[in-house]
Specification:
Helix content: 10-25%
Distance between the termini: 11 Å
Largest sheet: 5 strands, antiparallel
Strand content: 35-45%
Oligomer: single chain
Strand order of the largest sheet: 1-2-11-4-9
Length: 159
């Protein structure tokens, strides 16, 4: 999510890359939906190092907080639905960070809860800690989703 002061500067390279990734997902949605579970490289038209993780699971009762320092997440639901709880990392207590997997764990309470369904995307930046996979109000579902990972380290905290 992008929430910034109105007077903040615009980083054209960063926004162009995210826009390319969003358009790529829109234009290749049906093909991406057919990918098997696992990691798949994406065309370099987005940027060098971009890939998609395909995952399938049933909604979770108590997923952990996570964020990623080196990649922007673009979350896409292909089947089912899931709720996300999101908080700015400045509002949470940091726990361990695993550089090898780019997985940063947190603890605390979230500030935003939303439901993602097929046909919507959610863009999460490194300071957007998130709990994913929660059951929506309509009840538990089986989820198939993609997480497009777009390298971020070149613009670390410069939006």
């Amino acid at each position: 999510m992008i929430l910034k002061p109105l007077k903040s500067e615009f980083n054209k390279d960063f926004h162009d890359r995210i826009w390319k990734a969003k358009n790529y997902v829109r234009e290749h949605y049906e093909d991406l939906k057919k990918l098997s579970v696992g990691q798949h490289k994406l065309d370099k038209e987005i940027c060098e190092g971009a890939y998609i993780n395909i995952a399938e699971y049933d909604n979770k009762d108590n997923p952990p907080w996570e964020s990623h320092l080196e990649f922007v997440d673009i979350q896409i639901i292909f089947e089912g639905a899931e709720d996300y709880i999101i908080a700015n990392t400045s509002e949470l207590k940091p726990k361990e960070y695993d550089k090898a997997t780019d997985y940063h764990n947190w603890e605390g309470e979230g500030t935003v809860r939303l439901t993602l369904t097929p046909g919507n995307i959610l863009i999460l930046l490194p300071y957007d800690a998130h709990r994913v996979g929660l059951a929506p109000k309509t009840g538990k579902t089986h989820v198939k989703k993609g997480i497009v990972k777009v390298p971020y380290k070149a613009w670390f905290f410069i939006l």
